[in-house]
Amino acid sequence: MRVGFFVTCLIDLMRPEIGFSAIKLIERAGFEVVVPPAQTCCGQPAYNSGERGIARDLAEKMLREFEQFDYVVVPSGSCGGMVRAHYGDLFGDDPELMGRFGRMRAKVFELTDFLVNIAKVELSPGEFAGPVTYHDSCSGLRELGVKSQPRALLAQAGVEVAEMKGCEHCCGFGGTFAIKYGDISTAIVDEKCENIHASGTHAVVLGDLGCMLNIEGRLRRTGDTTTRVLHIAQVLAGDA
């Protein structure tokens, strides 16, 4: 079956290696992966900033490019959440678009949700030396129900997870929130970094690059040059 892979802006521009790791996992599960070359943004930044016209144009573009596939996989809870939870709001006044979106929506999955519930992968223990702690990104957790899936996959891969305090609390990124409310964002991510350190691990794993960049950036700016911040695709694919 054919999987349309939505790369996401941040992975494309900042950490393309995460995309390659995710594709590797999907292909290992027996699926053909197609990366539409003209894909761009899911529209979330525009939507969150009140630019509904721009967001809708991007949503229609994404729909045209991905509705043909058997599944659509997104290695980011925030982008996956934008598609599944908010495109309906943008298309609500157009029955034709809503019908097309409804058919595609059922096929859109965050990466770990896809690997567990659709691909039903069985991973073998790898060489990653744990333990790690895990950060649950807001959109993946609250809009897509991603919680047990990454932990189940890490367990299959033989990676021990030491849960941190407040693992479900925001990291302070929130897309444009970190720009508009820098002081509040910094206070939130400082608490997250404290909880990572208190977990006693030397690596934090997560499934959303926005959170990853915010946490890693704050760790480095406060002098922590050793704690690793890893996307779960990198760990599971053996690329960490």
Helices, strands, pairings?
Layout: E1 2-5, H1 9-13, H2 16-28, E2 32-34, H3 44-48, H4 52-66, E3 71-74, H5 77-91, H6 95-105, E4 108-110, H7 111-117, E5 133-134, H8 138-144, H9 148-156, H10 177-180, H11 182-198, E6 203-206, H12 209-221, E7 228-231, H13 232-236
Parallel strand pairs: 1-2, 1-3, 3-4, 5-6, 6-7
Q: Can you put this structure into words, describing what you see?
A:
- There is one protein chain.
- With about 240 residues, the chain is of the alpha/beta class.
- It has 13 helices and seven strands.
- Strands 2-1-3-4 form a four-stranded parallel β-sheet, with helices on both faces. Strands 5-6-7 form a three-stranded parallel β-sheet.
- Strand 6 (about 205), helix 12 and strand 7 (about 230) form a beta-alpha-beta unit.
- Helix 4 (about 50-65) packs across helix 5 and helix 7 packs across helix 9 (about 150-155).
What would a concise description of this structure say?
The chain is of the alpha/beta class and 240 residues long. It has 13 helices and seven strands.
Q: How far is the N terminus from the C terminus?
A: 28 Å
What fraction, in percent, of the residue positions are helical? 40-55%
| Number of individual domains | 2
Beta-strand percent range: 5-15%
Give the spatial strand order of the biggest sheet: 2-1-3-4
> How large is the radius of gyration?
17 Å
Q: How many DSSP H or I helices? A: 13
Silhouette: globular
How many beta strands in the DSSP annotation?
A: 7
H-E order: EHHEHHEHHEHEHHHHEHEH
Low-pLDDT segments, ≥5 res: none
Largest sheet: 4 strands, parallel
Mean pLDDT: 96
Helix-strand category? alpha/beta
